[in-house]
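Work Package 3 (structural annotation) set out to generate three-dimensional models for the target panel prioritized at the project kickoff. During this period the team completed the workflow that converts sequence records into discrete structure tokens, so that structures can be stored uniformly alongside our sequence database. As a representative example, we reproduce one entry of 286 residues exactly as it appears in the project archive.
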Amino acid sequence: MINKNKKTLSAPCPICQTESDRLVTEKNSWSYFRCSSCPLVFLYPQPSVPELATAYQDYLPESLDQIQAWFRSLEEVIQKSADLIEERVKPGRILDVGSGYGFFLQYMAERGWRGDGIEISQTGRNYCRDHFPGLRIESTPLPDPSIPDSSYDAVTLFYVIEHLTDPLMVLREALRLLKPGGCLLLRWPHTTPIVRLLGPLSRLLDLYHTPYHLFDFSKPFIEEQLTNIGFIDIKTIICGKTKPTSSLGRVSSLIFGWTGELLSRASQGRWLIPGVSKTTRAHKKW
């Protein structure tokens, strides 16, 4: 288990290096700070890449019951995300970063896409190999210079960007890998509003899944960074809801997810309920 022993009262933002003392929450020796310059929440201290790689070997459950529950939880998100991509891009070649068990890639293959995945968990790769032999799943994380420029029509990251030690580097790599006009799709949690609402209770719930979530993002931060990197036609909406295994989780997801998606559609993305997971779609210039 990853562990750090030193606490701190302030920390430098990993993105802009601004020193911040805006503590959001703590768990054991880990702290989450909100940057005083850019709208970013970050974990401090951050685990090393080798520490994270080791920890993620046990991140995905191995039992078939848990794996099927994982699929049911994301089934609606998978379907609606595919529709969102195909609004702008015809079926072609797709890369799913953090592909997990391969459910999304297999669904896209059934819709006529040729899918590749990146997954550092051996459990996820083994499941794909045994159940979806037509998929190609690699373990090398991005950036990967062995992949040629403009290789993909779409690149997706579902609940991945918050786990990355250098998310902006991976987004720049995604831009390189996309064909002109290609689509980037990000699904990311928006946890901090819930943490603030619950106050000290949030420490017991561990909503950031400490220390796996290295960052918590906001719509302004995501869209500003994508623009700076060179993406265009950036749109953030609420696109489907997950189905947690617990009864309370399912009820909460149904109420807030359905309401959030309805408001998002009605306002064309202008009204987004805080705390509900967001989906951002962006494109590479032609």
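The longest strand covers residues 178-188.
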